[in-house]
Design brief:
Blueprint: H1 2-23, E1 29-30, E2 35-41, H2 53-71, H3 80-100, E3 103-108, E4 120-121, H4 123-145
Antiparallel strand pairs: 1-2, 2-3, 3-4
Amino acid sequence: MYIAIGIAAALFTADRVLKYLSRTGKLRYEGRLLRLTHLENHGFFMSFGQQHPQLVRWMPWVVWLLAAACLLPQLSRRPFGARSGALPGGVKNQYARLRRGSVTDYLQFPHRRIKKRALVWNLADFMLLGGVVLTVLGLLRELIRK
């Protein structure tokens, strides 16, 4: 369990450092499979909601509170990875939205067949995605056992 806490803390710190380097222009790389860049996302996934900044700032808190109310009673039975992945990633991005009004994204996976290479990610996005996947897998595993 302490290893998982350490990994979550290291990923949280790495994301913060990479966002800072991206904003200051010190994080630049262009390779075949990875591009390090800078994008300030004022919306949600794929910039949805950019026209409504107050909604973007506060709506995730409502979603987090509803999810917590649904999942909290059974949280202690979940694998630690499911409990620790989504929370730091989501909190990190929401903190940035409240503090700066946007989330800094810096990871892009270019593909020559896709003309619009618009998806730019950050490490917190992957933490959030991983936590959600682990949570869903845990729920499916419980359903199969019953």
